[in-house]
């Protein structure tokens, strides 16, 4: 069972959002659990102050290290992994998600404002990851993407376990095109090879499509695929 603890300034965002579909079913089947921790509950003043201006000047505010550390130290054991979703972190990819999904405990820190004091990241051994080269107003939406990617890889969550083996990023390839009924729609037909019944031929077609799409749209992945091939 994967136990997720989420440290946020906006705790009301999550319980309902993650209580539908596969998330709810996976919770009921005890595949994962979510505990949402309000960072403001660990502030030291009556105003529940969690941020302050950065030394050296600059725009925006930073999450205070003492407040966030108090929240972490109260709820996280020393061996548990803590992840901070940040634009300057290592890019999160499917390989990393697979590795993280095998853990029993994951703690996610949602940043806000201009980020968090660097000393917090260093003293609490927090790993920084980015979900892409763009900026969000806070870490909550990024954490939802992260949690979704983790949950669907837990054993028994998806109806068809083999479906994850042919998805994009497996073996550094993007997924091939998919089709369903009707056989012809708005003048476009489903490729005839998919009706051939020849599984080897279909597999070959899908591979060639994946290779072509990856080569065209993600030359970085294509390079890795060729090197590994």
Task: Briefly characterize the structure.
The protein has eight helices and nine strands.
Fold and architecture overview:
- The protein is of the alpha/beta class and 229 residues long.
- The chain contains eight helices and nine strands.
- It has helices at 14-17, 21-28, 65-75, 94-100, 118-123, 139-151, 199-217, 219-228; strands spanning 2-8, 32-38, 51-52, 62-63, 81-91, 105-109, 127-130, 184-185, 188-189.
- Helix 7 packs across helix 8.
- It starts with a strand and ends with a helix.
- The mean pLDDT is 92.
- What is the count of distinct domains? 2
- Helices and strands, in order, run as EHHEEEHEHEHEHEEHH
Mean pLDDT: 92
What's the level 1 CATH class of the largest domain? Alpha Beta
Widest beta sheet: strand line-up: 2-1-6-5-7
CATH architecture of the largest domain: 3-Layer(aba) Sandwich
Q: Which percent band covers the strand fraction?
A: 15-25%
Sum up the structure in keywords.
18% strand, Alpha/beta knot, Trp Operon Repressor, Chain A, elongated, two-stranded antiparallel ribbon, alpha/beta, 2 domains, 229 residues
Topology:
Layout: E1 2-8, H1 14-17, H2 21-28, E2 32-38, E3 51-52, E4 62-63, H3 65-75, E5 81-91, H4 94-100, E6 105-109, H5 118-123, E7 127-130, H6 139-151, E8 184-185, E9 188-189, H7 199-217, H8 219-228
Parallel strand pairs: 1-2, 1-6, 5-6, 5-7
Antiparallel strand pairs: 3-4, 8-9
Helix pairs in contact: 7-8
């Amino acid at each position: 069972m994967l136990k997720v603890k989420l440290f946020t300034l906006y705790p009301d965002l999550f319980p309902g959002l993650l209580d539908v579909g596969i998330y709810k079913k996976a919770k009921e089947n005890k595949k994962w659990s979510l505990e949402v921790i309000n960072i403001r509950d660990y502030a030291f003043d009556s105003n529940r102050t969690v941020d302050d201006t950065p030394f050296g000047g600059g725009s925006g505010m930073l999450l205070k290290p003492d407040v966030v550390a108090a929240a972490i130290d109260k709820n996280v054991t020393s061996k548990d992994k803590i992840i901070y979703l940040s634009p300057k972190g290592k890019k999160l990819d499917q390989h990393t998600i697979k590795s993280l999904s095998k853990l029993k405990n994951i703690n996610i820190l949602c940043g806000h404002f201009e980020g968090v004091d660097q000393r917090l990241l260093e003293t609490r051994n927090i790993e920084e990851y980015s979900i892409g080269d763009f900026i969000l107003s806070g870490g909550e939406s990024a954490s939802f993407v992260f949690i979704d990617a983790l949950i669907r890889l837990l054993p028994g969550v998806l109806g068809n376990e083999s479906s994850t083996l042919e998805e994009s990023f497996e073996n550094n390839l993007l997924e091939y095109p998919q089709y369903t009924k009707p056989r012809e729609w708005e003048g476009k037909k489903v490729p005839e090879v998919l009706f051939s019944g020849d599984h080897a031929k279909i597999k070959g077609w899908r591979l060639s499509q994946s290779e072509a799409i990856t080569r065209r749209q993600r030359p970085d992945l294509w390079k890795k695929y060729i090197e590994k091939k």
